Every structure is written in C-alpha cells, then in structure tokens.
Amino acid sequence: MLSADAIVIGSGQGGVPLAVDLARAGKRVVLFERGRLGGSCVNYGCTPSKAFLAAAHAAGRARLAAALGIHADVRVDFQAVMDRVRGIRDRFTAGVVSRLESAGVQVVHGEAAFKDAHSVVAAGVVVEAPLVVINTGTNPLLPEIAGLAGVPLLTNLNLFELTALPRRLVVLGGGYIGLEFGQGMARLGSEVHIVHRGAWLLNSEESEVGDVLAEAFFRDGIAVHLDTQVREVQYIDGVYHLMLSSGEVLEAEGVIVATGRRPNTEMLNAPAAGIALDDEGYVQIDAQFRTSAPGVYAIGDVAKQPAFTHVSWEDYRRLIDILDGGSRTRDDRVLGYAVYTEPQVGRVGLTLAEAEALGLRARAVTLPMGHIARAIEWGHDLGFYRLVVEEGSERILGATLVGYEAGELVHVLLAHMQAGSTWRVLEQSVHIHPTYAESLPSLARLLV
Ligand SMILES: Cc1cc2nc3c(=O)[nH]c(=O)nc-3n(C[C@H](O)[C@H](O)[C@H](O)COP(=O)(O)OP(=O)(O)OC[C@H]3O[C@@H](n4cnc5c(N)ncnc54)[C@H](O)[C@@H]3O)c2cc1C
To answer: Does the reported pTM lie above 0.90?
Structure first.
C-alpha cells in the first residue's frame, strides 16, 4: 500500500494541471491513467480533430475558391494528412508526460477502481490518500442497432489511426463530433452520408443553425438524412449495408459512430466508495465538485459538466481554490463553445428560448451574413449573427454566430458578458472596417 496526499484518477484536461499544481505545492500525488496520458482532448478529441480539419478545410476552401474565379486541382495525400495529425497529437502527449514528470507526479498506468473512498487500486498498486479527484471523462456510446455489435466501427478512438480514406462513409449522428468528422472526411474525398435522427443538424442549437450547416454540407456534396434512424447493419466482404428507417439502403466502406457519450465510471467501483452516480452513470457532484463521499471530488465530463476542454480545465482552477479553502463554485461562469465545421458555429450563453424558459424578459436580433461587408467581399454568404439580451437591464444573455471563424469572434461577446457589460456598450464600440467583428456593434444597433 502506497500512501499519498492526493490521488487523481484520469489524466483529463482538469486532472493533469491539478496533479501538477498539487505536486508543485509539495504534495505527494499519484495519478492513475488507463490509456494515453493527456486524456481525450489531446489524444482522441480536440487536438487530432482540429489538426485533421485544418487539412480538410484547406481542401474544401481550395475547391470553393472557384466561386472567386480561382480553379484549383485538389489532390489529397491522405497518408500525409494523417501522419501530420498523429505527429501533432504525439507531440502534445509528450508535453503532458514531461509536465507530470517534471512536477514529480507519480503515474500508475492501469485502470483504477476504488477499494473504499480513500484507497484506489490499479495494476496491482494500491494507493491511499485523504483527497481523491475523479477526472475519467467519457467514451463513445454505441447505439443499439441490429447487427452493429461486433462489426469494425470508427469512433473518435480509432479514426486518427486511419491510413486510407474510406471511399464511401456513413456518419451516424448529427451532433458536433459527427458533423466535424463528416465534413472533414468529405472534404478529404470520401463520399459521405450523415444519418441523424434529429429534425435538423446540431439539434442542440436553434434550427436555423442546422439549416445553414445543411446548406454548407450540400455544397460539399454531403448527403444529409434527417429524422432518420439506422434499423440494421450488415457487414459483408468489407462493405457495410445500412438499412435506414426511410427504407433507403446505404453502402459504405466505413462507418463513423458519433451518437453520444457515456461516462467512464463502469470500472471505478463507485459503490465501494459510497460515490453516488446518476441514472446514466455520471458522478453526482454539488456546486463545489464534491461527490457523496467526503474527500472525493469529480471534475470534467464524468461529472456531467458541459463536455468541453475549457470547462474541465476551469473546473480544475475552481477546485484548486476550493481545496485552498476558497468559496468558488461551478455555477457562475460564462460558457461558450465552437463547432469547427465550415462555416463555424460560435455559441455563448443563452438562446432566446433558454432565456425565456428561465423567466427572463429577453429579446433577440439577427443579422444575416449577406448584410456583412466582409462576408460579401470574401464570398461567405452562409450564416448569421444573433444576439440575445435582457430587456430592462440591457445585459447580453447570449449569442449564436454562424460564419467564418465564428468560434474566434464569439469571444468578443463572451468578454462583454464576463465583464457584465450591456448591448449599449457594444453598440457604441467602434470596430475596425471591414472585419467580421465590425458587424457586432451593427447587430447591437438593431436593438435601438
Ligand atoms: C472528437 C472529439 C472532438 C472534441 N473537440 C473538442 C473541441 O474542439 N473543444 C473542446 O473544448 N472539447 C472538445 N472535445 C471534448 C473534450 O475532449 C473533453 O470535453 C475534454 O477532454 C475533457 O475531458 P475530461 O477532462 O473530463 O476527461 P478526458 O479528457 O476524457 O480524460 C479522461 C481520462 O481518464 C482516463 N480513465 C478513464 N477511466 C479510467 C480509470 N478507471 N482509471 C484510469 N484512467 C481512466 C481515460 O483514459 C482518459 O485519459 C472533443 C471530444 C471529442 C470526442
């Protein structure tokens, strides 16, 4: 039995900096990791997917440049694309390894399980500590479809190992992971079908967002099947045959499953520690990341926090304060996220419907992309900017930006919201012409 001051289970986006900070503060820290150090973002998520999309969007932009009078002959070296992706990923992973090493964090490679609330075992090593932090993230959730179990599928866990581009590809799921993968593969040359059971793409957002993405995907030659489910899958001689609820049958050399996530708690033996899970298996936490077991905390995706790297990382910052006796909670932050399709989606705060559901007196204004000088000049006609504000207080409650690099631009609004500023401050700002950002004061002026 090894004795430590703190145990971190999972080297996710919050767990690594937390372990490093605690170790640098002189604590004896043991971190358990069953897979590659650095968690989903570095190894199977943000880093490789965005490196992959950099190549895909370069190809897509080159093809779409025909509308500007530029005709490119696009040839994709898929092997080189994926070698670059893996190279970047491996560099990031190595960075995590060296951060942990130089801080003196002891890493145990193995799948951790609780023996009781303060002792954890993996690979035959038992460690006990007064503080335990769970940061075990999520894994792909495979849907229950006849014939799916046992056939070789692509998910975010193995997609970046591909060495050849599937000629025909079906993506199951029209959430952001499915859309990024689907558009990326199409732009690299696959014939892509996206099968989505929602009524519009990205149906966690307003329908107009999905409509814009559907039009963009149509221009990329992607077939989108909405309100559709896969009834059965057959895998014969390397070809998938997917029977859709519409009666259509799709054939493909590859199937990507991106239909949801499930928390990595099934191997944790949470009951032995008295840690309560919800019906889906997520760790239940209070506003200060405490689980039902005293001294045991959970951060990031496994605690059903909004599933983004910046959230898990911010969880760590808040938890460090709480462990130091501070009073921060997880509830008071302005949250945004981006979808790295083209056009991008940049979101922050509430939609109009969400604001109204909270009982706020809210109002929304929208500026279509066709009214934006920069967009016209650059040939970007798809998208819109929408601002949601509170009547009376004039607070900015949220924004949805769909357009070129909208994931960057949304930070203007995020900063206003964080600073507690109002739409009038935005309206009075003088932004540079001709930029996309110039349209944000114009958007606010629609409220005058
Ligand atoms: C394809 C894809 C693209 C994404 N793109 C973005 C993006 O662009 N921007 C963004 O903000 N977010 C993105 N995300 C989400 C992001 O990756 C996660 O929200 C982020 O990694 C936070 O996860 P985490 O810290 O909760 O844990 P994770 O990063 O998931 O890490 C959990 C770690 O715990 C380990 N583990 C699990 N169980 C055990 C156990 N019992 N014992 C030991 N170790 C264990 C796992 O192996 C893993 O390494 C993406 C996700 C995917 C799948």
So the answer is: yes
